Amino acid sequence: MKTLIDQLGQYGAYHRDPRNIATHFVGVPMIMLAVTTLLSRPTFMAGSLPLSLAVLASLAAAVFYFRLDFRFGVAMAVQMAVNLAVGQWFAMQGTALWLTAGVGLFVVGWVIQFIGHYYEGKKPAFVDDLVGLLVGPLFVMA
Q1: Which burial class, exposed, middle or buried, applies to 54 when counting CB atoms under 10 A from its CB (0-12, 13-18, 19+)?
Q2: What are the residues whose beta carbons fall under 8 Å from the beta carbon of 12, sequence distance 6 or more?
Q3: Residue 46, C-beta contacts closer than 8 angstroms, at least 6 positions apart
Q4: For the chain, what is the mean pLDDT?
Q5: Is 48 helix (H, G, I), strand (E, B) or coil?
Q6: Given 5, 13, 75, 117, which residue has the most CB atoms within 10 angstroms?
Q7: Bridge-partner residues for 44, per DSSP?
Q8: CA distance 107 to 62
Q9: Is residue 128 over pLDDT 80?
Q10: Which residues fall within 8 angstroms of residue 42, CB to CB, at 6 or more apart?
Q11: Taking the model in full, what pTM does it have?
Q12: Which band of pLDDT confidence, cut at 50, 70 and 90, is reported for residue 125?
């Protein structure tokens, strides 16, 4: 597994233009919240513990972040916990609000991202390496 510096360095090579970097501070959190929101339904029981795909995906991502760096792992875990709380709130609302929030955040977040990459003149990092989808939020946090 690559180190934190390796991951951020590789991701950073796709993000040099200040306008592109700025769009990531808006678009990436929107996409993170959107995915968490959409994966918050349905929930299922694991014994007496209610779970969703959002919880499982967040746990898997947390393992990735903690393996890279403990401090950033903690920071990302806190961010994901907030997203889980907000995503769960949306999931408990009516289907129209849950779906509109999730899809709306997802689409707008990606539009913002692609505007940034237009300025950058480069494709997004995940096109070459899907791990970029996990490193993007870490890049914003770092």
Answers
A1: buried
A2: 139
A3: none
A4: 92
A5: coil
A6: 117
A7: 51
A8: 24
A9: no
A10: 52
A11: 0.91
A12: confident
